[in-house]
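Technical annex, item 7. During the second reporting period the consortium partners agreed on a shared format for inverse folding records so that results from different sites could be compared directly. Each record opens with the tokenized structure and is followed by the designed sequence. A conforming record, contributed by the partner at site C, is shown below for reference.
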């Protein structure tokens, strides 16, 4: 009861609701519909190119975006209402290179008040998971910690498109295989307790938890939205084995943790399956980066997400985030850099995806013979190779050559837009980077490009 009252007091300032991802996407889709149907970007561009106002002398009923002639002395514009994501993508194409920082500020940086509300909501949900969720379990379940990942945890949230991975580390999960075999039962228990809270009105938020689509899901997903701001946060709650324990300062995991991870992944043929166990390292890898680098990551994510709407399945977004960090580390390392140059550099890396071999030695390296041998195999795989800096079994570049090819073609087309042009029309120069040669030409274990 004490916890329930405390949560109610905490939640009193937050007026929010939860709806499923499907409903959130449906609502976003509806925003694109107008009285005369859906207007395409090309239609709007054609209208902008017209030299005369688009109305007729005796016109009485105007279409959206046109001028209505109510009398001979009055012209009234009827505005077209476009989703912010579509408007910002149109504007990005036309934004001069020198104005990209202003574009990020106007379109991509999340509202401060909304971010504070979301952090407050996350704290409430984390408190629920720690203090109530497994209180009535038939056997002891201790939550050792709840870690916030995703863009909210990394500090790279986009306006209107924020996500948070809440990784719940549970005492009954004592091995990687435990996590694989038992995560489904814990997801069911979390779901049941969330639905109970909704019925009891223990929270001022309303839960509509997404139904799992398979017997052993990795995560329980839902969307938190704020009616005042009209922005949504996607939540994934993921049960995990606490492989790392408590982290301190410049923590570097005991190599034996990675030895066990590699053995388990190879035996199960599940490489990258247990990346959730290393969420804290993934978060810390990005969280302490300079503010402007995080802004560049936001710009790249915005570009990527709109490419995904157009092209469909693409390589994981996390791969693009890592490429952005890599481009900055290898080409700049300045806290105040030219955004257009950084953006162009990332897109050129995408274009040259068949030459990419990117990894870091911040959390693991070649010194342990088992890890070193495994890394050697990983780095000899067909390009692109982009290793998760926290999980050597996770190759973010592999497995989707078609997606990389489509994304590279889109990136090449984008280099002709004004956002990559100087004031005199000349192309913005990219940072100078060294790219790895093809895998077949490597006679030895390559040294890391950057030991972060």
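Designed sequence (site C submission):
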């Amino acid at each position: 009861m004490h916890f329930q009252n405390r949560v109610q007091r905490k939640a009193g300032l937050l007026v929010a609701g939860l709806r499923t991802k499907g409903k959130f996407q449906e609502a976003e889709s509806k925003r694109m519909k107008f009285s005369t149907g859906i207007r395409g970007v090309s239609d709007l561009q054609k209208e902008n190119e017209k030299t005369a106002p688009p109305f007729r002398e005796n016109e009485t009923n105007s279409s959206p975006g046109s001028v209505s002639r109510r009398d001979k002395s009055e012209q009234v514009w009827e505005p077209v209402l476009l989703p912010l994501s579509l408007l910002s993508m149109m504007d990005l194409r036309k934004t001069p290179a020198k104005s990209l920082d202003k574009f990020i500020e106007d379109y991509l940086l999340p509202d401060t008040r909304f971010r504070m509300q979301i952090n407050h909501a996350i704290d409430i949900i984390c408190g629920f998971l720690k203090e109530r969720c497994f209180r009535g379990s038939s056997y002891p379940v201790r939550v050792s910690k709840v870690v916030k990942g995703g863009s909210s945890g990394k500090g790279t949230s986009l306006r209107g498109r924020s996500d948070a991975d809440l990784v719940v580390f549970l005492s009954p999960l004592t091995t990687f295989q435990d996590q694989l075999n038992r995560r489904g039962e814990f997801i069911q228990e979390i779901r049941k307790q969330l639905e109970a809270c909704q019925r009891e009105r223990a929270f001022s938020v309303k839960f509509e938890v997404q139904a799992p689509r398979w017997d052993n899901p990795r995560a329980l997903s839902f969307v938190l939205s704020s009616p005042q701001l009209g922005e949504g946060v996607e939540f994934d709650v993921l049960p995990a084995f606490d492989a790392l324990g408590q982290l301190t300062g410049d923590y570097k995991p005991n190599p034996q943790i990675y030895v066990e991870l590699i053995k388990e992944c190879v035996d199960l043929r599940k490489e990258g399956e247990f990346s959730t166990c290393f969420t804290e390292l993934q978060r810390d890898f990005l969280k302490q980066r300079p503010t402007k680098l995080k802004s560049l990551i936001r710009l790249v994510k915005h570009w990527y997400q709109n490419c995904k709407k157009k092209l469909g399945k693409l390589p994981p977004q996390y791969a693009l985030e890592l490429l952005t960090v890599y481009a900055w580390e290898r080409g700049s390392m300045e806290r105040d850099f030219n955004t257009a140059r950084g953006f162009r550099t990332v897109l050129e890396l995408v274009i040259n995806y068949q030459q990419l071999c990117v990894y870091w030695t911040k959390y693991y390296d070649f010194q342990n013979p088992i890890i070193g041998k495994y890394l050697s195999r990983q780095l000899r795989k067909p390009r692109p190779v982009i290793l998760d800096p926290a999980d050597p079994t996770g190759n973010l570049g592999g497995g989707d050559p078609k997606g990389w090819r489509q994304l590279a073609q889109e990136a090449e087309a984008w280099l002709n837009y004004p956002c990559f042009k100087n004031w005199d029309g000349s192309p913005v120069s990219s940072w100078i980077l060294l790219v790895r040669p093809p895998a077949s030409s490597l006679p030895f274990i390559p040294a890391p490009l950057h030991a972060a």
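Residues 249 and 284 are 10 Å apart (CA to CA). The two ends are 47 Å apart (CA to CA). All partners now use this format for quarterly exchanges.
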